[in-house]
Amino acid sequence: MNREWLEKDFYKDLGVSSGATQDEIKKAYRRLARDLHPDKNPGDSQAEERFKAVSEANAVLSDPEKRKEYDEARKLFAGGGFGRGGFPPGGGYGQPGGGFSGGEFNLGDIFGAGAGGAGGADGGLGDLLGGLFNRGGTRASSRPRRGSDVETETTLGFREAAQGVTVPLRMTSPAACTTCHGSGAKPGTSPRVCPHCNGSGVVSRNQGAFGFSEPCEDCRGTGSIIDDPCVDCRGSGIQNRTRTITVRIPPGVRDGQRIRLAGQGEAGLRGAPPGDLYVTVHVSQDKVFGRNGDDLTLVLPVSYAELVLGTTVSVPTLDGRVGVKVPPGTADGRTLRVRGRGVPKRDGAAGDLLVTVKVAVPQKLEDDATEALRRYAEAEKTSGFDPRAGWAGA
To answer: What digits encode the pLDDT tens for the residues 182-195?
Structure first.
């Protein structure tokens, strides 16, 4: 548990209630991240700070384990269970107002703050509670732990999504400290195994008929001691920083599809592996093309004469143009298939191009064209052609 969490209202930062579902939290974060993203608000320091706050809130509330720790700690502090009136100043084990006998109780020990041992590393409250109530008593929250997964979004043009593209993504999230490379120790030094708990991070103690585990006081529950902590991350091994990563979007990605980038998420605590990054892709509509699975679709305007007499029309594809043959007597609305000119597939093949012909009716004709059309209409009647023969019971 990070002590700074208790000084922040992550639910308020995201604009959701404390009972919000994971889906509601995700939607709120996506909306705010889009509005506050530094690329959308260049030079706006206030928007950038809000973006960082929203990102931090999402990193905690979107992780069920972190959210549970955060909610429990807020509930305890709000109710006076610890600090903020929960223990009188100086009260502790064996002190007036203290809950247990033997040993001194110190809020700094709960959070892992203060001098000595861990050199200011975070950790402790979640583990103290875990020890008291026998919930995962041997793992301290500040011990090495895989980083949380991170989610972000990007919007692509239709043709970029169909053909694949490389895009830069700028994001703010916890990442490994660039100074100590995540170790928490000053460059040139290394953490050492805590001799008191032998690296376990917890010690067991009996109080009369009760036995419980608690974070090791020497290492603050981390299992290791940093004699000379990194000045940039204060021994935590992680920092909030804005970074730009290059993402290769594969060909054929669909609107709403999520792409997983292993190891590009939140940094792991104390050198543990990072989480993953999930990129949700939004695809813009195209003026010409549509999509049906792996097939491209388009509507081809043609004249009546072209349908009757037949023609070859040049139509666009994703990588140039291709000639499409319209057979004589083609019906309006017929779909013609051009194989292999659709959306690329993962196996190297491609879908088809589906061309639907649609008659374009002229709004105005010159006198010669009008007269010719009338003569044609008369000839059509003479030939016996009736476009509504058999239609509606006729």
So the answer is: 888 889 898 888 89
